[in-house]
Amino acid sequence: MDATFGPREAAAWIAVPGPEDDKYSRGVLGLATGSARYPGAAVLGVEAAMHTGVGMIRYLGVGRPTRLVLQRRPEAVTEPGRVQAWVVGSGQDPDELDARSAAIRDRALADPVPIVIDAGALSLADRAVGTRVLVPHTGELARLLGRERDDVNADPAGAVREAAVQLGAVVLLKGHTTRVADPAGSVLEVSEAPNWTATAGAGDALAGVLGALLATHALELEADPGAAVPIAATAAVLHGRAAARASRGGPFTVLGLCAQLPEVVRELAGA
Asked: For the chain, how many helices (H) and strands (E)?
């Protein structure tokens, strides 16, 4: 069964902190992203997660991306510790990844908490122990299914449904219309993003938004892993509406998209 998902539905999944909350109860997100070759993915994921709302970010990576993350966001913690959700794989090529980054990624995959699996970690999704949300683009989904890209473009809803059923995971197919499928075969469709969102780094930001939402809803996910489906769709709503605000009908930067996230969160929290 397919259904549309928009701001009205997303509003229910915005976590607003109360007077008794601290940085730990607001959610701790770990990111094992970026690489010496693609360090920007780490920066964008951290930036998006912080602007979505999370109590703490633990970024674990090699020297160059770690330095850039701390230059941009000195409040990020770069020491290992407990997290309530992970983002892995953004800005990583599994065939070229250094041994330290691969070891960090593998430890994250083995952690029994919800996990966003992106880009270079998609082929390793079966190693993940916690609730899995895969976030491929069209080409990556085609590779996961062993099909041609044109086949996925011809029937994106069918392709994302097939992947979710085959992998037993939530799958979010990025695009102008984002589709989120669950292992039972249901699909949610989100159409919030302008065409200008087709830009490098937008997917890294989406992974960060989604990771933040998983971390802030750790208790709900522990009680009901199926909550990952509307949470993933909510991430697409936030990301798309922030892109629309940043664009205003024209091109924009991904850091510009991230800067708009707090206002979108505020609007939905008050809906």
From this structure: 11, 9
Distances (CA, A) of 16 to 162, 239, 266: 35, 18, 9
Per-residue pLDDT tens for 127-165? 999 999 999 999 999 999 999 999 999 999 999 999 999
| Cα 14 to the center of its chain, rounded Å | 15
On the 0-12 / 13-18 / 19+ scale of CB atoms within 10 A, 270 is exposed
pTM: 0.97
Torsion angle (degrees, nearest 10) of CA 22, 26, 30, 33: -120
Integer Cα distance of 226 and 220 in angstroms = 9
Pick the CATH number of 2-14+25-262 from 3.40.1190.20, 3.90.550.10, 3.20.20.70, 1.10.10.10: 3.40.1190.20
The beta strands (E) that lie in the chain are given as 2-4, 28-32, 56-59, 85-88, 115-117, 132-134, 170-173, 178-181, 187-190
Q: Kindly list the strands in the beta sheet with 178-181, ordered across the sheet, starting from the edge strand earlier in the chain.
A: 2-4, 187-190, 178-181, 170-173, 132-134, 115-117, 85-88, 28-32, 56-59
Q: 255-270, pLDDT tens digit by residue?
A: 999 999 999 999 999 8
